[in-house]
Structures are given as structure tokens and as C-alpha cells.
Amino acid sequence: MRWSQTFIPTMKESPAEAEIISHKLLLRAGLVRKLTGGLYTFLPAGFRALKKVEQIVREEMDRAGALEVLMPALQPPDIWEKSGRLESAQDVLFHVKDRSKKNWVLGPTHEEVITTLVAGELSSYRQLPVSFYQVQTKFRDEIRPRFGLMRAKEFIMKDAYSFDIEDESANASYKRMYDAYGRIFARCGLQAFPVQADTGVMGGAHSHEFMVPADTGENEVVYSDSGDYAANIEKATSQGPLKRTLQESCGDVEKFETTNVKTIEDLSARFDVPAEHQIKTLVYMVDGKFVLLLLRGDDQLEETKLGSFLRSASFRSATDSEIHEQLRAYPGSLGAVGVEDIRVVADNALKGAAGMVTGANQDGYHLRNVDIERDIRINDWCDIRKVKAGELCLESGNPLKIRRAIEVGHVFKLGTKYSEALGATVLDENGKSVPCIMGCYGIGVTRTLQAVIEQCFDENGINWPTSVAPYQVCITALDVEMESEVMKLALKIYDELQAEGVDVILDDRPARPGIKFKDSELIGFPLRIGIGERSLAKGNVELKPKTGEMILCSPDETVSKALDWLEANSVN
Ligand code: ATP
Ligand code: MG
After folding, report:
1. Choosing a second label site near 341 at 20 to 30 A (CA), which of 121, 144, 187, 355?
2. DSSP 3-state assignment of 210?
3. Is the pLDDT at 295 greater than 80, yes or no?
4. Is 342 exposed, middle or buried (0-12, 13-18, 19+ CB in 10 A)?
5. Closest to 421 (Cα-Cα) out of 81, 56, 48, 55
6. Residue 518: pLDDT band by 50, 70, 90 thresholds?
7. Which band of pLDDT confidence, cut at 50, 70 and 90, is reported for residue 201?
């Protein structure tokens, strides 16, 4: 491609709305443009990089044996009604009406469509296992679209679905996808690692997310340096808090006045009760009923863990007035001592705790000497606290760390929820009708592209891996007169590299060298070939890898040196 004939509108400064580096660079390098919040147009260079990511995804899906299909983005709501997600996915579902005012939805994902397809097409276990995939536009009504392509309202996803007759082969299908994901991200030049993920309200099945470490990521990952544990914080467990709670037996419960104490910190500061000796009482509404959640004062609730424990997605914290009506006290003075008719769920970190302080369910009063098992009627013990850095891994005992990360992919063993709801059954060997065991597997293709930038950049711009760069090589001709020696050589090298199958762009713009170099560094072509009159007079062409030292070579050896460099720096 001749630069003068394409459209790469680079910018010196990035628009103020771009908060993170990859978003800034996407805009500054002229790869995308915003239509409005959460909606982007891919410009020619950005689209080239996107297609390369898609190609890698397709090759690895094909290699894993999945069959490519293309499903409609526009979907009838009745299949969502059947799966139960018209309600549970309402936060992300876009609705549209047709001319007869009939309602439709825009697909945020395609379990309903693929399962309906399989229900109609497959009838025998002999047709299984089978996996389908597509690379397609998804629509999600995100509350806060942000960070460019990272969280958009419309984005490209690769979604795949596996159908198996038995558990063992369903696990094998899962493993094939899991392995394919590892290869896909590695081939994109990304360091992504799998972490255990929440399996949601269905429980039982397993799930991993593929995470790219980044301070700007919206996820927190708990991991150990030894590599034996990694989990999304929404799922992570540990041996528990490092500071022990009091365990000795204690005297009788005593009430004491704590006027104006509203928080754990107030009580610590004014009454010298360390947070780990307090019981935090949260009031939730679960499926319309009150539930008291007890945590150690220095712990935070992890709502996702609560959701999987309750097997319900329908819960929220109760409002102050609901709480007052039920417990006759406001937050700040709540507790579970003496509570009889409400379900009480306590976090495991409180097991055996004695000599604790908790609210008295009377505003301005607390209770001391609370022995949790003696004084509180607990219905369920469970693990609902957020793990903290430094705690020890349950399995290996190794210390845990926490870091932020971007979720680029997700593999999920679904089980039979959708196949049962939508009738995707087949006859097994004995002629019995059984629901298919499903898995679903997503990769945010556009998010992955941006994650590559978030991980690969320097102060001058993007450092594209050769596999997904819009062009692998940029030839910077410093004299663009067609008859000049410089341009003649540039064209010759350009033709030869193209003939070798290299993606090459020739910067033939009549611009100052400084501008050309800056643009090339900003867009981040992996290798630049600089041809200028002065160095050519000395018999030199400059090969400048974006992330490496300049190599000087003679005009004749330029192509072979460039090919060698590409070979040595290939990530495929
Ligand atoms: P998130 O937790 O980030 O909202 P999710 O878990 O809802 O994502 P999945 O349903 O697992 O997303 O979708 C599969 C993949 O699609 C994700 O791993 C992510 O890479 C991508 N993705 C999801 N939502 C968006 C979005 N709004 N914009 C861009 N990519 C997205
Ligand atoms: Mg996910």
C-alpha cells in the first residue's frame, strides 16, 4: 500500500475523553474514530489489524474442529423468554420494534439462537460432538461504555458453542477450546492467562476467563507467584484473614451505648475495638425475602460469591427504610443477636469467634462479649468474603497477590440449562432422549485488539507484534520524486517485499522526515526501512525495528535482511 493512497489520520494529541493509553493510541494512530459513546468506526489501518486478529481466531477455531456459521444479530424475543434470559439479561438487551410494533432483541450473545438451531437439526448422539462458532457483531446496552473498544455498545465477538452427549466428551470439548484460547492470545502477541471464574447461578460446571494483566483492567485477579492458583476475585478463596479473631470464651453479652457510631471505623476509633473483633451485619433482599449477612468487620462482601452461594441472581441490599421496618434500627447499629425469623448467613471467617462486638438493633447501642455460635442463630456458613492480598492459598499455602486485568476471553461449561429450555435433545445409544451438554466460549475480538495495544506500547506509540500489525514493514522514502534514486530503490524494495508476501506500506508522502518517522513510530509498524539520499550515498539503508537497534545494510541485502528480521520476530 502507498501511504498517499490510504487514509491514516494520525493526531498529535488525543481527545480528552480517552483515559487509557490504548484508547489514546487507537485514536492518535488513526486506527478508529468514535461515532458516539461506545460506537466506533474502524479506519483502514485499524481494520487491517482487526482482520488479522480475526484470522488468527478463525484458524485456531478451525484447528479445534469448530465449524464456522453466521447467526442473525436480530433475534425474536420468544427464545429469550424460553431460556429465562429476557428477564435476567434485561440490563444488556437492546430492544427494537418492527413496522407492526412487534418487539425484537439485538443479540448480546447467541446461546438461544444456536441451541434453537441444534434443537431443529440434530437428533442422534451419532451427530455429536459438534461445535459451532462465528465472528460477529454483538450488542450490549452497557451502563458505562468506556475505554474505547474495551467496553462498547457494539463490538465484535467470536462466540463458539459445543454440544456433547456425555460429560467426559463435554470436558474434552472444553479443553480443546481452552487450549485454542491459549494459542490465539499467544499468536496475537498477548500475555494472557487463564483464571478460574464464577460459574454463576447454575453452579457445578466450570469456567475460566483469559486475562491480560493491566492496571486499567476492570477485573481483579487473585494469583500466586508460583503459578499454582489464579482466580477472578469474584470466585477466589483463601485460607482466610491473616489476623486471627478472638476465639476464647467470653462472659455474658452486654449492651453499651455508642451514640453516633455509624461505621466499623467509628467503633474502632472511639471504643478501641479492632475491626477484626467486630461483626459486620448487612441486610439483603434475596428473592424478595430479608437475609442477614454476617462478615468480620475488616472484611468486604463479594457479591458474586454470595450469588453463587444463594444460587440466585435476584438479590440486592435492603434500603434503610426496609431495614428499619424489619429490625427497628438503622445501619450502624445492626446485629443478628436474638434475631429469630430471618435467615442468617455467616462468613466462614467468623467461625469460632467470641468476644465480638456487634450492633444491638437499637440505634446508638452495640453488644459486646458476643460468642457467634452461642449467641446467634446461624442458618448457613459460607465463603462470601473478598480475598485480600497476602492471604494464603487454600490448596498450596502459597501467599496470594492481587492484580488488575482485562478479560479478553471466557470459556464456560454450561451443562444442560439451554438445551433443556430450548429442546436441544438427541436420542442416546439406548434410544432415550437426552439434552445436549453444552459449552460456550467467547473472545472479545475488538477488546483483544485494544488489549494488545494496552500491553505493547512505548512513549512514541504502539509496538505491534508482527502477527497483528496493520503493516509489518513501513518503507520511509525521504525523497519522493519518482525519478530520484531514493524513490526508485524504495519502490524496488517495496515490490520485492510484496512479492514475498510481506504486508508493507510505502510512505511516499511529500512530508518532512521528522513527521514520517513520528507517524511510523506512533502507528508502530514493527520494522521501518529508512531510505534517504545521504545514507544512500554512503551505501546504506536503515532497518529500524520499532523496539530494537538500527541495523545498517546495503541496498542489495535490504530485502533479505528484512525477511530475516521478520522471521526471527514472528509470533506465529
Ligand atoms: P464483562 O465482564 O467485561 O462485561 P462479560 O463477562 O459480560 O464481560 P462475556 O459474556 O463473557 O462478557 O463475553 C465474552 C467476551 O466478550 C468477553 O470476554 C470480552 O472480551 C468481550 N466483551 C464483553 N462485553 C464487551 C463489551 N461491552 N465491549 C467489548 N467487548 C466485550
Ligand atoms: Mg465473561
Report:
1. 355
2. strand
3. yes
4. middle
5. 81
6. very high
7. low
Q: How far is CA 201 from CA 108, 119, 306, 405, in A?
A: 19, 24, 10, 23
Which amino acid, residue 451?
A: A
Task: Give Cβ neighbours of residue 321 (< 8 Å, ≥ 6 apart).
Answer: none
Q: Whose CA is nearest to atom 11 of ligand 1?
A: 410
Angle at 81 between CA 80 and CA 85, to 5 degrees: 55
Percent of the chain with pLDDT over 90: 94
pLDDT tens digits, 204-245: 578 999 999 999 999 999 999 999 999 999 999 999 999 877
Q: Is the CB of 442 under 6 A from ligand 1?
A: yes
Mean pLDDT of 398-411: 98
Report residue 203's pLDDT band, with 50, 70 and 90 as the boundaries.
low
Nearest CA to ligand 1 atom 3: 407
Residue 466 CA to ligand 2 center (angstroms) comes to 28
Domains in the chain and their CATH numbers?
Answer: 40-237+402-453 (3.30.930.10), 254-382 (3.90.960.10), 464-568 (3.40.50.800)
- Give dist(CA 221, CA 236) in Å, integer: 8
What is the number of the ligand 1 atom nearest to the C-alpha of 157? 16
108 lines ligand 1 (CB under 6 A): no
Nearest of 171, 167, 166, 177 to residue 131 by alpha carbon? 177
Q: Predicted confidence band at 202 (pLDDT cuts at 50, 70, 90)?
A: low
Distance 209 CA to ligand 2 centre (A): 7
pLDDT in the model for residue 200: 73
Q: Give the contacts of 170 (CB within 8 A, at least 6 positions apart).
A: 129, 162, 164, 413, 437, 438, 439
pLDDT at 149 over 70: yes
155 Cβ inside 6 Å of ligand 1: yes
Ligand nearest to the CA of 140: 1
DSSP bridge partners of 404:
220
Report the atom number in ligand 1 closest to the C-alpha of 218: 3
Q: What is the pTM of this model?
A: 0.94
What residues have their beta carbon closer than 5 A to ion ligand 2? 410
Could you tell me if 519 and 509 are in contact, meaning their C-beta atoms sit under 8 angstroms apart? no
How much of the chain, in percent, has pLDDT values that exceed 70?
99
Q: Which helix (H) or strand (E) holds 254?
A: strand 254-257
Residue nearest to atom 8 of ligand 1 (CA): 407
